[in-house]
Write a structure and sequence with these properties.
Layout (H helix, E strand, L loop, with lengths): L16 E2 L1 H10 L1 H11 L6 H13 L7 E2 L14 H17 L24 E5 L4 H11 L3 H11 L5 H10 L5 H8 L19 E5 L2 H25 L20 H6 L12 H4 L18 H12 L6 E4 L13 E8 L2 E7 L3 E8 L7 E6 L10 E7 L2 E6 L5 E6 L8 E4 L8 E2 L12 E7 L2 E6 L7 E5 L6 E2 L3 H7 L14 E13 L6 E11 L6 E7 L7 E7 L12 E7 L5 E7 L3 E8 L3 E4 L2 E6 L5 E7 L4 E3 L3
Parallel strand pairs: 5-9, 17-19
Antiparallel strand pairs: 1-2, 3-4, 6-7, 7-8, 8-9, 10-11, 11-14, 12-13, 12-15, 15-16, 16-17, 17-18, 19-20, 20-21, 21-22, 23-24, 24-27, 25-26, 25-28, 28-29
Length: about 650
C-alpha cells in the first residue's frame, strides 16, 4: 500500500454555513457521484468488496453533526459545485477516504475511517463493480501506483472537473501536507476522464458472489451461540429507565415516528382541487387533480404506499438516472388511481419525483414500481406522464389544461397527425418508439395542444416524456409548423441514443448549411442536445444530412460539454464524405460566429468563415480547430 502524505490540520478557510438539512439534500442528490469519488480515492489494496462497502460508509457518514462552515472552493460554475452543501460533503468524503488509506502504525489509536465499516454490511455475499475493458484495467493499475493524495488529485480533476488551483484547495482543506506535490504526481497519469464514469468504477452498480461457503458453515454454530449469550445478557441488563425503549433517546427498530406513519396512511394522501390549475399561477404537477376510477380505493392506495416504502424482492423497481428511490418523506400527492388495460395503476407526486405503482388486476404478483425525477418541471415538461405500456404501445396521462392529443411520425414531416383523445386525461394507445426493435423506420411522438399552442413530446422509456424543441440554444422554439418538422425529420431516429438516460428535453439546432463539392447539392449540419433532469450527463450529437438521404449521420458526439447549449452556443464538427464523382473530402462546419476553420493532423487545410472543404483520401485522420468572432479558440466536437 502506498504511504499517504496526509497530516491533520487545525485551521480551515471560512465559508458559508451549511446545516444538516442542506448537506443531506446535497448528499442524497449526488450520492452515486460521491460514492464513486470515495471508491476511486480509496487504496486499491483494500480489495474491491471492502472498497465498495467503505465508499458507501464514508459517504453516508459525511453529514455534519450540526451547522458547519463549508470551505470556499473555486470550481466550475455548475449547480453541483455552486452548492455549499455539496462542497462540504465532498470535502468530508475526500478527507475520510484519505484517512482510510493511512497505515495503522502511524497512530496509537486508529481513526474511524481506517477500521472496517459497521454499516452498510451484506452478509454472505461479496460485492464488486462490473468489470471493464482493457482501458479501465490499465487506468486502475495506474491509480494504484499513486499515493492517496495524488489519486485524490487525479479524481478531483477528472471526475469533478476542478481546475488545478481548485484541486489544491480541496486537498489542502482535506489535510494533505503538500497538495502541489500531489497534483504534480497525478499529472503523470494519462488523462482519461471518460473512463472515470465507466461501470468499472461505479460502486452503486454491483455484481454479487458468495463468500467462502465451507468456512461460513463451520462458524454458524459458534455465531448462534454468541448471539444467544448476547441476547441473554442484554435482557438482564435492560432496565425500564435505560433509555433504549420506545420512550428513550433511541427508539427500537420497529418504532415509527408520526411523519413516517402519515406517509403510509392513504387517508392523508393529498389531492389538488379539480379547478386548481385554472386559478393557480403554476403549471406543474402540483395542480394536477387526482383522476382515474379508483382514487377512493383505500386498499389500493395502502398497497401502493407500502410497496413504495418497502418494495419486496418480487417487485420490479426502476428509476431514471439520478433519481432517489427511497420511501415517501410525507404524504404524497395523488395524480391517478385506476384500471388501465390489465393493470391497476397509481401515480404519486412528492415535489421531486413521479412514482408509479402498477399491479395486475387479478392480484398483486408481478407488481412494478417506477421512479422519475421531475423537479422544477413546468409547462411542456409537466404536460404528460406515461400511464401504461403494453404490447409495444404507450398510454399517456395528460395535464388538465391539455385540450387535444395526437400521434405524429416525427420522421415524416408531411404526414398528418392521428387524434388520440384524450378521454378523462388518458390518451388512446400509440406505438412507442422506446420499445421498437430492429431498423428505425419511424419515430412516433405525442403532439399536445392547449390554449398556448402545440408541443411535441417523445417516449424515451421513462415516466416523463422528453420535450422536443428546435432552434438556437438560447431561444429554442416548439416543434410546430412545417419548417420545424423538416428540421427534426432526418434526425428523429437519433433519439434512440438517449433512451433511458433521464432526458428532460432535446433541442435540434440547424447551425450551418454547406454547398457540397462536385455539384452535389447542399448539406445541413444539425446539432441535437439532450438535457437531463439531474443537470449533468447532457449528450450532444453533431449530425450531417446530405440531399437524397433519408436520415442524418452522426459526425461527432460528446457528453457533459457546454457545446450546443445555452451557456456555450457554439459547435464545430467534421466528417469524411465521398462525392458522387468518387472523390473524398473532409467537410467541416462551425456555428455562424466561427470566423475561421483549420484542419490538422492527417489533413491540412484552412478556410475563412465557418465552412471547410478539403480534398483528401479515404480513412484520413484529422483534427479541427476554429476561431470565433471574439477571438476565442474552439476545437472540433468529440
Amino acid at each position: 500500500m502506498q504511504s499517504q502524505d496526509v497530516a491533520p490540520r487545525t485551521t480551515r478557510a471560512s465559508g458559508p454555513v451549511v446545516d444538516v438539512e442542506q448537506a443531506e439534500a446535497a448528499l442524497v442528490e449526488h450520492y452515486p457521484r460521491l460514492v464513486r469519488l470515495a471508491y476511486l480515492v480509496l487504496p486499491p489494496g483494500l480489495g474491491r468488496n471492502r472498497r465498495v462497502l467503505t465508499a458507501h460508509a464514508l459517504t453516508q457518514r459525511a453529514l455534519p453533526r450540526g451547522r458547519a462552515s463549508a470551505s470556499v472552493i473555486p470550481a466550475q460554475a455548475t449547480g453541483r459545485d455552486g452548492d455549499p452543501g455539496y462542497s462540504f460533503v465532498r470535502l468530508q468524503v475526500v478527507r475520510t477516504a484519505l484517512e482510510a488509506g493511512l497505515p495503522l502504525k502511524r497512530r496509537a489509536w486508529p481513526k474511524r475511517a481506517q477500521l472496517p465499516s459497521l454499516f452498510p454490511q451484506v452478509w454472505g455475499l461479496r460485492l464488486f463493480p462490473r468489470s471493464g475493458g482493457a482501458d479501465e484495467l490499465a487506468l486502475d493499475q495506474h491509480l494504484s501506483t499513486l499515493s492517496g493524495p495524488a489519486r485524490a488529485a487525479y479524481v478531483l480533476r477528472g471526475l469533478e472537473k476542478l481546475p488545478e488551483d481548485g484541486v489544491r484547495k480541496v486537498l489542502d482543506a482535506a489535510g494533505v501536507a503538500d497538495p502541489a506535490a500531489a497534483v504534480r504526481q497525478a499529472a503523470g497519469v494519462p488523462v482519461q476522464d471518460a473512463l472515470l464514469d465507466s461501470p468499472e468504477f461505479d460502486p452503486c452498480s454491483l455484481q454479487a458472489r458468495p463468500t467462502d461457503l465451507m468456512r461460513r458453515r463451520q462458524h454458524t454454530k459458534a455465531a448462534l451461540a454468541a448471539a444467544a449469550a448476547v441476547a441473554v445478557c442484554g435482557a438482564l441488563l435492560a432496565l425500564p429507565s435505560g433509555g433504549w425503549g420506545p420512550d428513550g433517546a433511541a427508539a427500537p427498530s420497529y418504532a415509527q415516528n408520526p411523519a413516517a406513519r402519515a406517509a403510509l396512511d392513504p387517508a392523508k394522501v393529498t389531492k389538488a382541487a379539480a379547478i386548481a390549475w385554472k386559478t393557480s399561477a403554476r403549471t406543474d404537477f402540483s395542480v394536477w387533480p387526482a383522476r382515474g376510477d379508483l382514487p377512493g380505493d383505500k386498499a389500493l392506495l395502502r398497497r401502493a404506499l407500502a410497496v413504495w416504502a418497502r418494495p419486496g424482492e418480487s417487485v420490479q423497481v426502476s428509476a431514471t438516472p439520478g433519481t432517489p428511490s427511497g420511501g415517501p418523506a410525507g404524504p404524497p400527492q395523488l395524480l391517478y388511481a385506476g384500471r388501465v388495460d390489465a393493470a391497476r395503476v397509481v401515480i404519486f407526486y412528492d415535489a421531486l419525483r413521479i412514482v408509479r405503482y402498477a399491479e395486475p388486476v387479478s392480484g398483486t404478483s408481478g407488481a412494478a414500481l417506477d421512479f422519475a425525477r421531475v423537479d422544477a418541471a413546468a409547462g411542456a415538461e409537466a404536460d404528460a406522464l406515461v400511464l401504461d405500456r403494453a404490447d409495444g404501445n404507450v398510454r399517456y396521462l395528460t395535464a388538465p389544461w391539455v385540450t387535444g392529443a395526437a400521434e405524429r411520425d416525427l420522421s415524416k414531416p408531411s404526414a398528418g397527425a392521428m387524434d388520440l383523445g384524450p378521454t378523462g386525461g388518458v390518451t388512446a394507445p400509440l406505438a412507442s418508439p422506446a420499445q421498437q426493435t430492429g431498423a428505425c423506420t419511424s419515430w412516433n411522438v405525442l403532439q399536445l395542444t392547449d390554449a398556448s399552442g402545440t408541443r411535441l413530446l417523445t417516449d424515451l422509456g421513462e415516466l416523463a416524456p422528453a420535450h422536443l424543441t428546435v432552434g438556437r440554444p438560447a431561444a429554442p422554439r416548439e416543434v410546430s409548423g412545417a419548417a420545424a418538422l423538416r428540421t427534426w425529420s432526418p434526425f428523429a431516429c437519433s433519439l434512440a441514443a438517449v433512451r433511458s438516460q433521464g432526458v428532460r428535453s432535446v433541442n435540434a439546432w440547424g447551425y450551418a448549411q454547406q454547398t457540397l463539392p462536385d455539384d452535389s447539392g447542399d448539406a445541413a449540419w444539425v446539432c441535437t442536445r439532450a438535457e437531463t433532469w439531474r443537470g449533468g450527463g447532457a449528450r450532444v450529437l453533431a449530425q450531417f444530412h446530405t440531399p437524397g438521404v433519408a436520415y442524418g449521420a452522426v459526425a461527432a458526439k460528446a457528453e457533459d460539454v457546454a457545446a450546443c447549449g445555452a451557456k456555450d452556443p457554439h459547435v464545430l464538427a467534421g466528417v469524411l464524405w465521398k462525392s458522387a464523382a468518387g472523390s473524398w473530402y473532409l467537410l467541416a462546419a462551425g456555428s455562424a460566429d466561427t470566423r475561421s476553420v483549420r484542419a490538422t493532423g492527417g489533413v491540412e487545410g484552412s478556410a475563412q468563415g465557418n465552412l471547410l472543404a478539403v480534398r483528401t483520401k479515404q480513412g484520413a485522420q484529422a483534427g479541427l480547430k476554429g476561431t470565433l468572432a471574439d477571438g476565442r479558440a474552439i476545437s472540433g466536437l468529440r
